[in-house]
Records
---
Amino acid sequence: MSALVNLVDVSKHYAGATALHSTNLSVERGKTTVLIGPSGCGKSTLLRLIIRLIEPDSGSIEFDDELITSDIIGTLRRRIGYVIQEGGLFPHLTARANVLLMARHIGKPEDKMQNRLAELCELTRFSVNLLSRYPVELSGGQRQRVGLMRALMLSPELLLLDEPLGALDPLVRASLQKDLKEIFARLQQTVLFVTHDLAEAAYFGDEIVLMNEGRIVQRGPVSDLRDQPTDPFVSEFINAQRGVTLT
Ligand code: ADP
């Protein structure tokens, strides 16, 4: 089966600087692909290009064998869930309203939305009693669970996660990592996950894509990066996080 997302020779420049050099990448269906690399290496840019928050300067991106053009951006955004570090929740809306926002916007029947909401609370282990709270009244971990519910509301084919656990303390982070991994397996979800943490990448990634300075340096299972580095940067990056146990 073909990949769900295909980037072909995609590049992105900002005034005078290259955020992403000409890049090819495929995101396999039903797998978790992890983008990892130092801050500023182009990971978020790559996600934003896929969901078309920004336009590539060159190259093309296919989603489910269809070329992404401006005509399909509206429908594309319903087929892709996106979670960012702080959850990106609207502060003036309750957790419930945040989760239902897009579904309401496209006119989903109320009973279907409420059923889906109950299902998502169970899936993400979020208490229904907290749904009437505003983001400021929730903990960081709870906010991320709401962000995840919102992203999953319309059963997206692709889930993009941009450092979703980066702002959490270690215990909350570990518990959410475990839950997320179970959720992805249960949904057989296609996931593109950004982190700069090697242990997290190893925990989630069926495949790891290591980036540096706007380029993909090596991609493969974490064991390949550890045992068969193709570039000195790969060993440097892995050694810099030594002490991390790679499974
Ligand atoms: P990462 O997610 O790996 O930390 P980013 O994709 O956010 O990296 O950024 C890649 C590079 O592009 C960085 O050098 C960053 O400063 C630059 N960049 C990102 N967004 C913008 C922008 N809107 N304007 C100018 N430069 C940007």
---
Amino acid sequence: MTKHELKELLNSLTLKEKIGQMFQALPHIFGEDGAITGIFDENVETDDIIATVGSILNMYDTERMKKLQEQHLKYSKIPLLFMNDIIHGFNTIFPISPALAATFNPRLIKETARITAKESAAFGINVTFSPMVDISRDARWGRVCEGYGEDTYLSSICSKSMVEGYQGESLQNDDTIAACVKHFALYGAPYDGRDYNNVDMSERMMRNDYLPPYKAAVDANVAMIMTAFNTINGTPATINHHTNVDILRDEWGFDGVSITDYGSAKMCLSAGVVDNHTETAQLLIENKVDIDMMGGVYGLKYLGEAVKSGTVSIEQIDECVMRILKLKNKLGLFENPYKYFKGSDSISESERVNHRAIARQSVSESSTLVKNDDSLLPIAKDKKVAFIGPFVEKNDLTTHWAQIHGEREIGLYINEAVNSFPELKGEYSYSIGCPYLSDDKELSEKPENPCENNAKLYEKEAIEQAKKADTIVMLMGEPHELFGESGSRTEITIPEVQMALLRKINEVNKNIVVVLFNGRPLVLSELSELAKSIIISWYPGSQGYLGICDMLFGYTSPSGRLPFSFPRKSGQVPLFYSNIATGHDHPEGQFHKYVLRYIDTLNSPLYPFGYGLSYTEFEYSNLSLSSSTLKRGEKITVSIDVENIGNHDGFETVQLYIRDVKSRLVARPLKELKAFEKKFIKSGEKKTVKFEIAEEMLKFYDKDCKFNAENGEFIVYIGSHSLDDSNSANFELV
Ligand code: BGC
């Protein structure tokens, strides 16, 4: 439709129809044939829903969706949108978001989103509530499993890559979907790590550290944005005018669709900041929020009332509805409201094979080797290997978001994966050993107990097998019931029952490899003493065990790098590398009084941000700058040689950090990641890696909250992780 046609369409709508566009319904209000079957909300005239509703949330049935669209279009000129939470893949399930961040491979990340878009679009979905780019530095928060880690720059790159992948070349194409970046803003920074809790943050920290990933999505033309459940400095994010309008709309120029998070509009009343939902409706409109998910606040009762009483004008409503119409138009729905219903069968088997190959590649590229004593990995193909741990009984290495629908591919069990490699000639045994959790854990959702209340028997079997094996591969970690939405924990540890088994196994055989499944950084201090090798695999998705076998038996080398600092103890969180100097800093491990430290542990993480080993080794040398003076508006180049001095080929992720040594009245982080390159380097080969440094990379929000780079001294570090200081050079901005 042309602009003019859209305007005419808008002008032809009644108030009820306009408000309908701003309302989002759950599928349970519709029956199999799309008829209305029940009251959804006391504030919504149900008879009108089918005719006026603008979008549907989380429906997973192509035929039903298609029928609903048909039925809707009998009454309405405006096609429905189908919005779903497609978070780490649709049919093909990829590793979870922190794992994708760990790949440090934007091209691969984009490709996973591209595949996800193809698969969901064929199924009938046209919007995904992804990417979630809430920076979090507090691993107690259960939703760190959905974000891209602690770092602003890495998260921004992931945010951009995901949006570009989902939205492709054009939303007009029938294999692209609209992305919705969330949760705006600061949802990942509740002050005590508990999901939904309040956020209080300085304007400068918010702009320097937390907002850039959302902005990266906006700059990549993301179609939608979702507000957040939390308050920001006292005001609910959903009606926070400063973030929603001053920053998002006015400063960043976002003109896409804004949607509330599930029921977050109604929460304004519970937060005690409004008198009633009609006032919330008025505030939502003033915040330029276009759709209310599951709220009913944008129903005739409240929004209609606000219009009647004059606190909301028709012009304001029109502005919101126009943004929604524009999105539907961008997606090409007016020309063909059925373009998304090609059906999953429309994806050919050869495409599926390719999707699985990318998912499998992502497992090695995201899994992070943090320890490999005695080169226990890779395991020779003729060894006796005992696979032990509760994850032996699991083939679905996915999380809640993939599990809410039945469309996902389910992977192989570990034994099936091992058997699929004909060249493996060793002896392989499999035993569960222990449950995921001890029975006394109080949880609303509990993992099933694979030991059928016969834990002792399972433990005995595991120990017997461990005694006979050359190498033990422990498949253990955090069951997905312990993280995700409302999955906050105070102790970010591996369940004790699994650690107890590991201790017993260690008594009979020390050749232990741990493959860890986790949704957050966990405390691995004791584990790192009991295991010789550790691969952190997060939740690797539907190709999980095939990808894991690739690494275990040396077909690939794990090449992930940690997107979070992993603490030594739970009490260290929030923990992140980009701290600022305090004046009380002191060399690690020298326990003087009056210095910045804990009494009972070191300051440093067990494994720092950016860290990860490989089956080979890399040596860095010859860091050199093209000039030690950077003139504003110009660039200098920094280069370094990276040599693979080990016996295997492998990937190295070369990371560039910058320190702004002196800045006027605002202390700057000791280091910030500003660039990286993931390079494949063959054994014995040396590559020169070059980066450009530009003024833009040195800018920050200064004491007056102006975005500036200050003249003066900077240090550039290039290395293999955030605490690697071995190669650095100074330069000056003039
Ligand atoms: C979550 C969102 C999600 C929405 C819709 C909310 O509870 O916070 O991330 O997109 O539900 O399912």
